[in-house]
Amino acid sequence: GNSVTQMEGPVTLSEEAFLTINCTYTATGYPSLFWYVQYPGEGLQLLLKATKADDKGSNKGFEATYRKETTSFHLEKGSVQVSDSAVYFCAPSNAGGTSYGKLTFGQGTILTVHP
Amino acid sequence: NAGVTQTPKFQVLKTGQSMTLQCAQDMNHEYMSWYRQDPGMGLRLIHYSVGAGITDQGEVPNGYNVSRSTTEDFPLRLLSAAPSQTSVYFCATALSGGRYEQYFGPGTRLTVT
Which among B48, B58, B99 is the nearest to A51, CB-wise? Predict the structure, then answer.
């Protein structure tokens, strides 16, 4: 099955700092890749996705590129805001066989942004 | 359009009690799933369904039961609650399995004493 190694947190940054959260995965087949965000007290919501190699997903200033050769999907943002404080989850999904539709989550990275 | 709804929001059970966590969706999604979230462990898949009448086990199915008689509903039953089942439970749906993103409900926080 799939597995995910996600950058350990917590990560603490000042507003307007550059953010990178590393994510590498192992997967059978050709997964889609997702980043989800969880704000305090809420469920997860999709932040961005990529479905094939070299695709770049982007949303709300966040970006991540599907790197098949390094099996990575690192999340970046050029200038974080206090409102970006949340838990971020990397998740590959698979389309085939016994892994159909299953998301495999990393343990999550807690991001805190200070003014 | 409510999306994915879960009830109850909070629940406290005593060891050995049973209960059902409800999940409903109005997006006509084929795929529905249940996860539990524990500190430092991300989300782990309990059970999932690829359509009405079809369910399958995830990573951590023991102690839980599901059924899917309609497209809209996917209840999760705890047969005999144990303290190890104290967790936050999320229901998620997707248009279908595979490459589609999942939409999560707001969660149910369950405490078993």
Answer: B99
Residue A100: the pLDDT is: 60
Closest to A10 in 3D by CA, of A112, A102, A90:
A112
Shortest Cα–Cα distance, A75 to chain B (Å): 17
CB contact under 8 A, B50 and A103: no
Per-residue pLDDT tens over the stretch B34-83:
999 998 778 899 999 989 999 999 889 999 999 999 999 999 999 999 99
CA distance A12 to A43: 22
CB–CB of B99 and A42 under 8 A?
Answer: no
- What pLDDT, in 10s, does the model give residues A59-113? 999 999 999 999 999 999 999 999 999 999 999 887 555 556 677 888 899 999 9
Residue B98: pLDDT band by 50, 70, 90 thresholds? Answer: low
* pLDDT range class, residue B28, cuts 50, 70, 90: very high
Candidates A55, A71, A31; CA nearest to B101 is: A31
Min distance A20 CA to chain B CA atoms (Å): 19
A44 token code pair:
């997860």
